[in-house]
UniProtKB/TrEMBL annotation:
Pathway: Isoprenoid biosynthesis
PROSITE patterns attached to this UniProt entry: POLYPRENYL_SYNTHASE_1 (PS00723), POLYPRENYL_SYNTHASE_2 (PS00444)
InterPro entries: Isoprenoid_synthase_dom_sf, Polyprenyl_synt, Polyprenyl_synt_CS, Prenyl_diphosphate_synthase
Cofactor(s) the record lists: Mg(2+)
Region (Disordered): 1-21
The protein's name in its UniProt record: Geranylgeranyl pyrophosphate synthase GGPPS1-1
Family of the protein in this entry: Belongs to the FPP/GGPP synthase family.
Length: 338
């Protein structure tokens, strides 16, 4: 269902009050509050904070090593400025967790995990540019173009994007070449004209328009969910998962991916700039269509709950201890505060 939505072009400027995906999910959560949903899905005892600290440390070290300072310093420093600026590292954590879940050696997925973060970071650099969202503040510090100028910020984004693919192709070891090719194909699709670029284009062109839920879902799926999808699917591919498992995990990822952006919309109107590390109330300021704007806060919260529930349901076949990180990551995405 989510897949179908993902591939289909929306009818621009149509108002769809109750898309099929939400209606079909409604029966699941009609009897549960947000708190109850969290309780129903509570993962086995698992120290998520420590898990994420470990993963972030592993990824940060690998990113630092993959991108050493070198000539031309202005470009490489600009890339390092944004990539090493912190961030939650959700996408690389998903790649490593998916590889581990299907029985792969996590170390083999590290270049792919780093590539996810490079691409995510380049999308943030470009998103913050004056021609796009025009933002001054990201990850708790001035945006890339505020420090290095627009010209270098554009080039830093370009260089991070191409280096991500180079890094996977050159530094993935101990994985069949066919799997690496599939990873490159998945990632290429996720960022191109059927992925992030598409979502961003429709987002920009929808500003100031009356946009309905179907178009909004298209934007969120492409702009945000596509990269989370690639993060999970590519981790599973590197880990040697069979096609059926990859497709189950794809559904998990598309659900958490959409939930990620629904929560982002909610946080934009409920959290401070300080907590977010980026400008709060930005969507309101530019009169962007968001889930809270179309549905209200409570109904948006319920959409996110349903998506997280549907994501976790995809993991049914895995043992509780084995799937604990993926369950906890879904919870984190659904109930995060920044
Ligand atoms: C990739 C070729 C290519 C182009 C990019 C600019 C653009 C096209 C797309 C914009 C994509 C975008 C910025 C989507 C928003 C996704 C989102 C909710 C980002 C926030 O992610 P977090 O909360 O941030 O994980 P941290 O800082 O924690 O990593």
């Amino acid at each position: 269902m989510i897949r179908a939505m993902h591939n289909r072009a929306p009818t621009p400027r149509t108002r769809v009050s109750h898309p099929r995906s939400h209606r079909a999910l409604a029966h699941v959560s009609a009897v549960a509050t947000a708190g109850q949903v969290a309780e129903v899905h509570s993962a086995p005892a698992f120290d998520f904070e420590m898990y994420m600290r470990d993963r972030a440390e592993m990824v940060n070290k690998a990113l630092d090593a993959a991108l050493p300072s070198r000539y031309p310093e202005v470009l490489v420093d600009s890339m390092r400025y944004s990539v090493l600026a912190g961030g939650k590292r959700v996408r690389p954590a998903l790649t490593l967790a998916a590889c581990d879940l299907v029985g792969g050696d996590m170390a083999t997925a590290l270049p792919t995990a780093c590539a996810m973060e490079m691409i995510h970071t380049m999308s943030l650099i470009h998103d913050d540019l004056p021609a796009m969202d025009n933002d001054d503040f990201r990850r708790g510090r001035p945006t890339n173009h505020k420090v290095y100028g627009e010209d270098i910020a554009i080039l830093a984004g370009d260089a991070l994007l191409s280096f991500a693919f180079e890094h996977i192709a050159r530094d993935t070891k101990g994985v069949p070449a066919e799997a690496v090719l599939k990873v490159i194909m998945e990632l290429g699709r996720a960022v191109g004209a059927q992925g992030l670029s598409a979502g961003q284009a429709v987002d920009i062109k929808s500003e100031g328009q009356e946009v309905g839920l179907e178009v909004l879902e298209y934007i969120h799926h492409h702009k945000t969910a596509a990269l989370l999808e690639a993060a999970v699917v590519c981790g599973a591919l590197v880990g040697g998962a069979d096609t059926a498992t990859v497709e189950k995990l794809r559904k998990y990822a598309l659900n958490i991916g959409l939930a990620f952006q629904v929560i982002d919309d909610i946080l934009d109107v409920t959290q401070t700039t300080e907590t977010l590390g980026k400008t709060a109330a930005k969507d309101l300021a530019v009169n962007k269509t968001t889930y809270p704007k179309l549905l209200g806060l409570e109904a948006s919260r319920k959409v996110a709950d349903d998506l997280i529930r549907e994501a976790i349901a995809q993991l049914d076949e895995f043992e509780p201890a084995r799937k604990a990180p993926m369950v906890a990551l879904a919870h984190f995405i659904g109930y995060r505060k920044n």
